């Protein structure tokens, strides 16, 4: 699901709200999560999960094509840990099976 699909789903479920207001609410929520992470805060959405920032120290890597050593700068990376309710929902009853997620052969294959 992309942001516009989320906004449309919320608009369909809340016909009493203006579409532009829903767009603004979704943008504000995402902006606040981003701002919190930029400050180094942990952002927790109960039942969904927690966003945090992890430090990746500088290191020496290898160019896979040439094998040459390459210096990789330190960086901060966003990290998401799913909450218990989300994990239970993904692994619980009614979840699609592995067979459902496999590509099905088309006609004539």
TrEMBL record:
One GO cellular component term: chromosome
Pfam families, A to Z: Bac_DNA_binding
Highest taxon, organism lineage: Bacteria
Positions of transmembrane segments: none
Gene Ontology BP annotations: DNA recombination; regulation of DNA-templated transcription; regulation of translation
GO molecular function: DNA binding; structural constituent of chromatin
Family matches, as SUPFAM superfamilies: IHF-like DNA-binding proteins
Family to which the UniProt record says this protein belongs: Belongs to the bacterial histone-like protein family.
Primary role: This protein is one of the two subunits of integration host factor, a specific DNA-binding protein that functions in genetic recombination as well as in transcriptional and translational control.
Protein name, per record: Integration host factor subunit beta
Primary gene name: ihfB
């Amino acid at each position: 699901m992309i942001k516009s699909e989320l906004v449309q789903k919320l608009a369909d479920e809340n016909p009493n709200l203006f579409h532009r207001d829903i767009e603004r609410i979704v943008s504000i929520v995402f902006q606040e999560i981003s701002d919190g992470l930029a400050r180094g805060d942990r952002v927790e959405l109960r039942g969904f999960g927690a966003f945090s920032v992890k430090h990746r120290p500088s290191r020496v890597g290898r160019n896979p094509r040439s094998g040459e050593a390459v210096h990789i700068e330190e960086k901060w990376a966003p990290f998401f840990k799913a909450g218990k309710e989300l994990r239970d929902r993904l692994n619980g009853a009614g979840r699609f099976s592995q067979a459902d997620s496999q590509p099905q052969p088309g006609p004539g294959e």
